[in-house]
Amino acid sequence: MPLKERFKLRIYGDPILRRKTEEIKEFNDSLSSLVERMIKVMFEKDGIGLAAPQVGISKRIAVVLKDNEPKVLINPTVVEASTDMVEEKEGCLSFPEIYEVIKRPRWVKVKAFDLDGKEYLIEGEGLLARALLHEIDHLDGKLIIDYLSPARRAIIKSKMRKLWAK
Ligand SMILES: [Zn+2]
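Above are the sequence and the zinc ion SMILES. Below is the predicted complex in structure-token form.
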């Protein structure tokens, strides 16, 4: 498959979005170029985060924007989250043109590895916390639709079916 095709953005209904991702064990050049391409896609699509399954790669890799700088998260895990929750509209590149109110912790601390295999901590509140939690959800096959009521879910599923039919 050509590289460009492989990096096509996956939208809801694509089974890869539900698959649990594989941990990264080797920090090498192919990982770096993969991440580089993910960052490119994130910028092209005006996203504030992107998870590997969204570009067809079932691995524990995500990128998020922090102060307009891309941060690379390899094998990320949530270390701590505030009990204080906020409800905000949230979108996802895998659900084009859909924005739903989702309740998430206001603040979060995440442990991840960088491209050199060095462990680091990243914490964020507000939009950054939301982006971190959203992307880590992707790595566990969890999507924004899972947070919604059955009625809302049905509406979105039908919108997405229409999109697939196009
Ligand atoms: Zn998403």
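The chain has one domain: 3-82+106-143.
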